[in-house]
Amino acid sequence: MKWDVLEIDLAYEGSAYPDARWTTDHSASSYGIPVLVIGAEAYGAWDYLPNGMVARAWLRVALKATGSEAFRSGELPAGW
Known about the structure:
Layout: E1 7-9, E2 21-23, E3 35-38, E4 41-43, H1 55-66, H2 69-73
């Protein structure tokens, strides 16, 4: 999977963050490493979200819940 351009909508039923997206199209993303964007805030893999979860852990839950190919392939970029 190529990470230079990435945009994954992470909305799923019951999500704490229905507007979340995982993207490289944000100023906080660098070197093709995506960030988790919730509202106007961008989070790196080890940042804490408002609900107290680490962004990396929440992302994996969201990718699984949405049936994302990124989760099924097990191929996530370094750090995530």
